[in-house]
């Protein structure tokens, strides 16, 4: 991409500003009840919720928020939600979620307009997907990007050179070196369902990725 993308990283279109820069380090990606229980015992300050239904998401988010975490809901993964602004409005009105994750630009834009953190998930499956990033950002007005898979530092470095938006590496981050490499090339945070990584602190993430510290593979 020839032009560096200059975008604001605060959700300030409507309502109170929410600073996405509070999302840093390891983010716990939570896919079921067992993972939620584990995440609430972990030191992770941010949780991405990737499960639930329209009738259970309220209780799931409330449980997480009672522990003082930053909580974002992946609209695409909640059963019963359509990828529309109405789903964002339901989350805003019925849960204390801090923000929304989605691969759909319209959903992310609706989150921004509602005063929530809006993070767009971008799947870098080929060069076409990469070259679509400027248009995706323009459409969604995202305040941050989750780049998947997050275990490919070369692609993360390209995107870091193209945009000032905060980047979160997510997907297939299965060991400490994956996380370190993502942070080394400019990711602000690393989202993973691998519970063995949830206890990694800042010093661990800044360690030399060439010095392996074996951990259990992600599930």
Describe this structure in words.
There is one protein chain. The protein is α/β, with parallel strands linked by helices and 219 residues long. The protein has 9 helices and 8 strands. The chain has one domain (20-205): TIM Barrel. The chain is 33% helix and 18% strand. An 8-stranded parallel β-barrel has the order 1-2-3-4-5-6-7-8, surrounded by 6 helices. Helix 4 links the parallel strand 4 (99-102) and strand 5. Helix 3 crosses helix 4 (105-113) and helix 4 packs parallel to helix 6. The model is unreliable at 6-17 (pLDDT under 50).
Give descriptors for this structure:
219 residues, alpha/beta, globular, eight-stranded parallel beta barrel, single chain, 9 helices, TIM Barrel
């Amino acid at each position: 991409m020839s032009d560096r993308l200059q975008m604001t990283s605060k959700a300030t279109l409507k309502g109170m500003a929410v600073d996405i820069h509070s999302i840093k380090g390891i983010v716990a990606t939570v896919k079921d009840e067992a993972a939620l229980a584990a995440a609430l015992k972990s030191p992770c300050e941010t949780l991405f919720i990737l499960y639930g239904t329209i009738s259970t998401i309220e209780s799931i988010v409330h449980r997480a928020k009672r522990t003082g975490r930053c909580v974002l809901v992946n609209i695409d993964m909640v059963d019963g939600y359509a990828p529309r602004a109405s789903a964002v409005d339901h989350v805003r009105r019925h849960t204390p979620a801090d923000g929304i994750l989605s691969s759909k630009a319209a959903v992310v834009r609706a989150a921004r307009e509602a005063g929530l953190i809006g993070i767009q998930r971008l799947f870098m499956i080929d060069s076409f997907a990469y070259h679509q990033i400027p248009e995706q950002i323009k459409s969604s007005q995202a305040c941050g990007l989750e780049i998947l898979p997050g275990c490919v530092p070369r692609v993360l470095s390209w995107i870091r050179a193209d945009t000032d938006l905060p980047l979160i590496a997510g997907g297939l981050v299965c060991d400490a070196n994956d996380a370190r490499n993502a942070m080394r090339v400019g990711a602000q945070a690393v989202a993973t369902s691998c519970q063995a990584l949830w206890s990694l602190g800042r010093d661990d993430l800044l360690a030399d990725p060439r010095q392996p510290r074996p951990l259990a593979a992600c599930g």
